[in-house]
Amino acid sequence: MLDPDSQEQRPIEQIFDILTSFPSDALEYVDESLPAPRRNQRATMAQMAQRFARTHTEPMGVRFPLNFPDIPTRAPDNGVPSFLSSTSCTLLQDLLRAQLDVDEARICTCAAPPPPRCGHAISKRQFAALTTAWIYWQGGTTMLSEAGTVTAPHWDQYGLSTWISCLEGEIGLAWLVRPKNPEEHMRWLSDPGRPTARWAFKVLRPGDALYMPSGTVHFVFRRPSGGQTLGYSEHLVRRRHLVGWLRVVGLTLGREDVDLEGYGLVLPPLMRQVRVLVKAVKAQGLEEMYGGKERLGEALKLVGQVEKAIKSVFASWRSLPSHFLHAISLA
């Protein structure tokens, strides 16, 4: 647990005590002060700890501030909103765990028909992609930034819900007021650089947290005249919001900038696990945990639509290597 009232160390210094415990870990960032060919930089945690310790007293920040929105680090207890202790918020982690808990013999490494038609549970590339996702989703990520940074408007990858909390500094959040129907959502997708809906704003200060449901278009900012900030965030899917999540996944697959490899490797096994989940929930009579029988029926229909959409996306990518097509294929 971090101590926000410590007289000896700021929360940012406390988190670097944890991050620098692993010397091999490093952070990649873009240094806008360098010529374009050299902007992609890499630094150790120790080097970043020195930078954040050195510049936190500068009232106007630095000319080219750094922003690290997703450093995999399990959030301290006082950085996690209390509602997350409910099992209703653990669906995403449960789906991931079920797919990763598989015998090595059931991981497909051949060029046979794709899982599960080939008798395997999951492809090697899917397993690797889910393992990477687990690193970021099993305990949240650290948000570390200097004054003046902005994370451009977006909704979070895979249509997941998100919470953000603040432990040091002031973190500004703005989000589009939720659209009334999918058509309004799609209008933003058609021109994300010029959103026309209404914006809501909130400034998070130490102790504050905010939850954003699936598909919330938002951006994060820090005032140029402010200081460094430390926050935590985590992705989740609430059990009663399973249908809402699947709807957003379907909308995301309609975007031109969809992450082909990411969605093609992560979504198929998750969709297969949702089918298994719905069957088990019905057998145990636990439908109300997920919003009732009608909602579960709708969830199965949406899973089918998502699977069909993925197939359609990849059908237009005929130049992909055959081993990649095998890895992302659905039953």
Could you describe the 3D structure shown?
The chain is α+β, with helices and mostly antiparallel strands and 331 residues long. The protein has a domain at 109-123 and 240-328. It is 36% helix and 20% strand. The protein contains nine helices and 13 strands. Strands 3-6-13-8-11 form a five-stranded antiparallel sheet. Strands 7-12-9-10 form a four-stranded antiparallel sheet, with no helix packed on it.
What's the layout of helices and strands?
Layout: H1 11-19, E1 26-30, E2 40-44, H2 45-55, E3 67-72, H3 91-100, E4 107-108, E5 122-123, H4 124-137, E6 141-145, E7 150-154, E8 161-168, E9 171-176, H5 182-190, E10 199-204, E11 209-212, E12 218-221, E13 229-236, H6 242-252, H7 260-284, H8 293-315, H9 322-328
Parallel strand pairs: 4-5
Antiparallel strand pairs: 1-2, 3-6, 6-13, 7-12, 8-11, 8-13, 9-10, 9-12
Essential attributes:
331 residues; alpha+beta; 5-stranded antiparallel β-sheet; 4-stranded antiparallel β-sheet; 9 helices; 13 strands; globular; disordered C terminus; JmjC_dom; JmjC domain-containing protein
What's the quick description here?
This protein has 331 residues and is an alpha+beta fold.
What percent strand? 15-25%
Q: What sort of overall outline do the alpha carbons produce when their principal axes are compared?
A: globular
Report the uncertain regions.
Answer: 318-331
Total helical segments? 9
Order of helices and strands: HEEHEHEEHEEEEHEEEEHHHH
Radius of gyration: 21 Å
Q: How much helicity do the residues have?
A: 25-40%
How would you name the oligomeric state of the polypeptide chains in this document?
single chain
Query: Main beta sheet: strand number and arrangement?
Result: 5 strands, antiparallel
Q: How would you write the strand order of the largest sheet?
A: 3-6-13-8-11
Total strands: 13
Q: Overall mean pLDDT score?
A: 82
Which structural category fits the helices and strands? Answer: alpha+beta
Question: How far apart are the first and last residues' alpha carbons, in Å?
Answer: 44 Å
